[in-house]
Design a protein that fits this description.
By secondary structure, this protein is an all-alpha fold. The protein is built from five helices and no strands. 86% of the residues lie in helices and 0% in strands. Helix 1 packs antiparallel against helix 2 and helix 1 packs antiparallel against helix 5. It is flat and about 50 Å long.
């Protein structure tokens, strides 16, 4: 596995664990305590940054030559395909949230839904990139 593919795996796992915890907590604690959610969101972002930093250090130590290699044509194509797919998810989510806002959903719901759409699009992007790395693009 290349350095980039390993980093994609690490980021997907970190995002799924961090935001999975956030969205699970969102449904278990009443949303009257907005300060709690801001602290929780900062903690989740800190967790993801920490996991990604540790993973980058470990993977770079394992194979420093691959970690410093420039992205080749295959890496750029894989990135483009993943981003292309995630863009459609993001656009559909934005339209869905526009309709939800029109029909009177509260700000707390809309902000967390927007965060969910962003996280979903990012997971789709990373998942598509991992698929293409495995497929052999």
């Amino acid at each position: 596995m290349s350095f980039r593919e390993k980093m994609h795996w690490a980021s997907l796992v970190a995002i799924l664990l961090g935001f999975g915890f956030y969205f699970f907590t969102l449904h278990t604690i009443p949303h009257t305590s907005h300060d709690y959610y801001i602290g929780l969101l900062i903690g989740v972002i800190g967790f993801i940054i920490a996991v990604m930093t540790i993973a980058a250090i470990i993977f770079a130590i394992q194979n420093s030559k691959d970690a410093h290699a420039r992205a080749d044509e295959r890496d750029r194509l894989i990135h483009m395909r993943g981003t292309h797919l995630a863009y459609y998810i993001l656009v559909l989510g934005v339209w869905a949230l526009a309709f939800a806002a029109h029909y009177g959903h509260g700000m707390f719901f809309l902000l967390n839904s927007m965060l969910f759409v962003l996280v979903l699009a990012e997971c789709i992007r990373i998942g598509a990139q991992l698929y293409h790395y495995r497929k052999g693009y």
